[in-house]
Amino acid sequence: MTRSERGSFGSRLGIILATAGSAVGLGNVWRFPFMAGQNGGAAFILIYIGCILLLGIPGMVSEFIVGRHSASNAARAYGNLSGRKGWSAIGYMGIATSMIILGFYAVVAGWCLQYLTASLTGSLGGDMKYVQDYFFTFSSDPVKPVLWGLAFILVTHWVIVHGIRGGIERASKMLMPTLFILLIVLVAASCMLPGAGKGVEFLLKPDFGKVDSQVFLEALGQAFFSLSLGTACLCTYASYFGRQTNLMRSACQIAVIDTVIAVLAGLMIFPAAFSVGISPDSGPSLIFITLPNVFREAFASLPVVGYVVSVLFYVLLSLAALTSTISMHEIGTAFFHEEIHLPRRHAAWIVTVCTGLICVLSSLSVGAMPVLHLAGRSLMDFFDALTAQMLMPVGAFLTCVYVGWFAPHKVVRDEFTNRGTLRSRLFHVYLFAVKYVCPIFITLIFLHQFGLI
Ligand code: PFF
């Protein structure tokens, strides 16, 4: 299939928004703010930015090089760059990783849809105990959360079958600006509350006393998950980039958007939480238990504003999740479409059915069927740990080693410099990072995750 038959993004803006859409997701809202607040505020943010520069951007550019060079799905792309088919294994691993992530990510995305409808109908209103019971009753229901998760995958499917320009690019051009505007509105509402300054201070005041080696490793892991590295997602999107796309500049722009949105998410959560004296945490309990309480308390004297803020918040979360699930779905769809020669619609159904199954099992494992567990944890937690702690770091490590050490130097240079049309001063810096810095740091995260350092 030629480059033009495959379809491509139609504009530079489309490329940036779609790829940033993959990066901006639930990870930005429920993980980054808490980590920053806990680990030294601005000191953590500075370290995080260092990690993005050292590891994130070189890692992204490497996936972009593999994808854009071959203009094909991830499995073929990894085989093509060096001409040795064995390297396709990294692509296959990325496809499997992204499908597993999509399966369990959709469960949480489905919860966001339920909370969106609940906040619209006003059924989230109640005291702290009520909100907590609401979450546990809903998430352990055998049917409702499963249906919401499947509904989320079907919405993703619907975008995917409309193709690259008409589906992914069009959706990203609508969803990303909407997400940004909603975030600004919510940041303003949160920062205007009495006592909000304490929350801003918690997030932004630098406290270098809290920084230790653990904080460095946490920042690295977060940078890596947030940029969707190691799942072949960036490689698949880059296969739709044009020849003239500047890979380094695009990676920097996407990293900036992702980081700004993560910091804004903190400015949305902490001022409101501190204003009512509720201590924020991370993960599902932050967005499904803590925040509904925060919104109710913070806007107790203006219930209409509380209602609007709560609805907008769940719209925002659902949009952030959707722009990420679209990217995860595309990886498998491109593969089945091109390798098994199925029409795109049918290829998308294979991904939808497989990920739907993972979604059903994950959802039941944290609710109605706790017997569904593996290695001492619920299936959902198992899939989460398997992908975030194992498959993603290994995928990113192998990509850097492959591009840095095994792929033909000339091809890598040509892709980086757009066949010599861009200045190549940064190329040596990039190559150094990808050959030495990234593999060493990713190995450190990996060892840290297994408690070996
Ligand atoms: N980067 C997304 C987030 O921060 O929520 C998560 C993600 C998206 C992981 C796409 C992997 C992926 F392929």
How would you characterize this protein structure?
With 453 residues, the protein is mainly alpha-helical. It has one domain: Hydantoin permease (Orthogonal Bundle). Helix content is 77%, strand content 1%. It has 20 helices and 2 strands. The chain has a two-stranded antiparallel sheet with strand order 1-2. The radius of gyration is 21 Å and the shape is globular. Bound molecules: 4-fluoro-L-phenylalanine. Residues 22-23, 25-28, 98, 101, 225-226, 228, 231, 233, 324, 327-328 line the site of 4-fluoro-L-phenylalanine.
Order of helices and strands: HHHHHHHHHHHHHHHHHEEHHH
The biggest beta sheet is recorded as: 2 strands, antiparallel
Radius of gyration, taken over Cα atoms and rounded to an integer in Å: 21 Å
Question: What's the total helix number?
Answer: 20
| Span between termini | 47 Å
Low-confidence stretches: none
Number of strands: 2
Taken from the alpha-carbon principal axes, the silhouette is: globular
Please, what is the average pLDDT?
A: 91
Stated plainly, the CATH topology is called: Hydantoin permease
Number of domains: 1
Q: Please give the order of strands in the largest beta sheet.
A: 1-2
What is the CATH class name? Mainly Alpha
Helix coverage percent of residues?
A: over 70%
CATH architecture: Orthogonal Bundle
What hetero molecules are bound to the protein chains? 4-fluoro-L-phenylalanine
Task: Decide which structural class fits the backbone.
Answer: mainly alpha
Strand residues, percent: under 5%
Question: What descriptors fit this protein?
Answer:
single chain; 453 residues; mainly alpha; Hydantoin permease; two-stranded antiparallel ribbon; 20 helices; 1% strand; binds 4-fluoro-L-phenylalanine; Transporter; YocR/YhdH-like
